[in-house]
């Protein structure tokens, strides 16, 4: 008799239907105290009350009981730098010095495929340990770094997005490509990886300072030729960066006008940072549907400034939240939510834990236009699921004794949690942490 290959995960399940509008918006999410997720062929077949889901499960389904822990969709990190795994925690001044002193030297090593492969193993171990099941990464300017990045994702079955950084000036010669070679290499990498298994290619001009006008034009041509690819770049992170950009691109109204001019904006465009935005820029972001990606630990670490979520969202701008390792200081979306919460607190924008956990899961999936595939526990989506323990450490357990609600527990996870709170990470239904040496 054929076996079903089905898995049943039992635990407390939480998944969002839409963005919660504050603490009392209980219809924005599904929560089952005794819940279950049924997984078949790497996809979610059903999620809901244990009794109902178990009844639907094939008789030979393998049961894993995660009670009393929480089952959530895997975290999504929409902005991270793969070649900066050895840059994280580098003592530096602000953005431009940090890039020159630490980041560019580290990225040069990725010309060597073997180096990229070694870092890829560690990088994906870190993502899994921290409960991140999808990320959008900048690779280095070397096509080999993209190969190392996607090959390791493929070996682990992960939905990952990324691309070769395009940069043809204001960086060491060993990192610089040309407008033409960046176009040719990106095109070849799109043919090699985009849509292969769970891989998606992201056209990746680093930022205006490290691209000539000819290269931004090449990036715009790539996006026009491959509208199903995402595009990522940085903008309005640091005052010196902005001034230098406007020197390099005279005649443009502001920083965003440069990217607008070269046709880089749209619903698949991810703009890292968006801290120092003017009103015109917000209007263009809204009209084009481009996404502002908030990188809290990086913004604090590099002293860049405070992301104004309320202002952006009131203006109709789509937002996401990300780690930005290695300017960012943690792979953990929990740590990232905590720092983001504090940045918003400073601006009297206090997010409820329902809002923050929505953001790191379904919210980021929507920002990537991927919520049909990932970011929820909805039936027919890919079974990327994490198991969180709000009492994972002695300090968390002590605080957890007085938790009165699910929201309390989420806030404990966000404020005190990190990879120690991630008990298991499932990728396409497969347990990735079990058996991992610690
Ligand atoms: O935080 C950042 N990290 C980077 O690597 C980078 N490159 C340009 N601008 C950047 N900002
Ligand atoms: Zn970045």
TrEMBL record:
Start and end residues of each Aminodeoxyfutalosine deaminase/Imidazolonepropionase-like composite domain: 35-59
InterPro entries, alphabetized: Amidohydro-rel, Guanine_deaminase, Metal-dep_hydrolase_composite, Metal_Hydrolase, Metallo-dep_hydrolases, MQNX/HUTI_composite_N
Top class in the EC scheme: hydrolase
Cofactor: Zn(2+)
This protein's record includes keyword Metal-binding: yes
Cofactor binding annotation: Binds 1 zinc ion per subunit.
GO CC term (a single one): cytosol
EC number: 3.5.4.3
Molecular function terms from GO: guanine deaminase activity; zinc ion binding
Pathway the protein takes part in: Purine metabolism; guanine degradation; xanthine from guanine: step 1/1
Catalytic activity, reaction form: guanine + H2O + H(+) = xanthine + NH4(+)
Any one biological process term the GO annotation gives: guanine catabolic process
One Pfam family cited in the UniProt record for this chain: Amidohydro_1
Domain spans labelled Amidohydrolase-related: 71-431
Keywords from the UniProt entry: Hydrolase, Metal-binding, Zinc
Origin superkingdom: Bacteria
Matching PANTHER family: GUANINE DEAMINASE
Function (record text): Catalyzes the hydrolytic deamination of guanine, producing xanthine and ammonia.
Family affiliation: Belongs to the metallo-dependent hydrolases superfamily. ATZ/TRZ family.
Classification via NCBIfam families: guan_deamin, PRK09228.1
Protein name per its UniProtKB record: Guanine deaminase
Species, as recorded: Roseibium aquae
């Amino acid at each position: 008799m054929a076996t079903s290959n089905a898995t049943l995960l039992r635990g407390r399940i939480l998944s969002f239907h839409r963005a919660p509008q504050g603490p009392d918006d209980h219809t924005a999410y599904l929560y089952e105290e005794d819940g279950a997720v049924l997984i078949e062929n790497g996809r979610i077949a059903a999620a809901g009350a244990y009794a109902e889901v178990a009844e639907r499960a094939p008789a030979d389904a393998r049961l894993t009981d995660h009670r009393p822990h929480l089952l959530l969709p895997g975290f999504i990190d929409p902005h991270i730098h793969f070649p900066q795994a050895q840059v994280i925690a580098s003592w530096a001044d602000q953005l431009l010095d940090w890039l020159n002193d630490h980041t560019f030297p580290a990225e040069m090593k990725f010309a060597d495929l073997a180096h990229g492969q070694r870092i890829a193993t560690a990088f994906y171990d870190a993502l899994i340990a921290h409960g991140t099941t999808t990320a959008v990464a900048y690779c280095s300017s070397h096509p080999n770094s993209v190969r190392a990045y996607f090959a390791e994702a493929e070996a682990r079955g992960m939905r990952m997005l990324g691309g070769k950084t395009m940069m043809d000036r204001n960086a060491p010669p060993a990192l610089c490509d040309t407008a033409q070679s960046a176009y040719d290499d990106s095109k070849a990498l799109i043919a090699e990886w985009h849509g292969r298994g769970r891989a998606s290619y992201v056209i990746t001009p680093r930022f205006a300072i490290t691209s000539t006008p000819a290269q931004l034009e090449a990036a715009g041509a790539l996006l026009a030729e491959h509208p199903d690819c995402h595009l990522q770049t940085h903008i309005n992170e640091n005052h010196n960066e902005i001034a230098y950009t406007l020197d390099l691109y005279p005649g443009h109204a502001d920083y965003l006008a440069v990217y607008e001019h070269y046709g880089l904006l749209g619903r698949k465009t991810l703009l890292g940072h968006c801290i120092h935005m003017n009103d015109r820029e917000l209007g263009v972001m809204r009209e084009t549907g481009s996404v502002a990606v908030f990188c809290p630990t990086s913004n604090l670490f590099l002293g860049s400034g405070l992301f104004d979520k309320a202002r952006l969202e009131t203006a109709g701008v789509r937002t996401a939240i990300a780690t930005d390792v290695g300017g960012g200081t943690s792979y953990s979306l929990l740590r990232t939510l905590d720092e983001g919460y504090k940045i918003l607190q400073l601006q009297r924008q206090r997010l409820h834990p329902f809002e923050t956990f929505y953001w790191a899961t379904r919210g980021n999936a929507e920002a990537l236009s991927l919520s049909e595939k990932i970011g929820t526990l909805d039936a027919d989506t890919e079974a990327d699921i994490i198991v969180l323990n709000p009492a994972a450490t002695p300090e968390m357990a002590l605080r957890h004794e007085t938790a009165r609600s699910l929201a309390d527990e989420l806030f404990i996870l966000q404020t005190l949690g990190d990879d120690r709170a991630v008990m298991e990470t499932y990728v396409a239904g497969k347990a990735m942490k079990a058996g991992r040496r610690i």
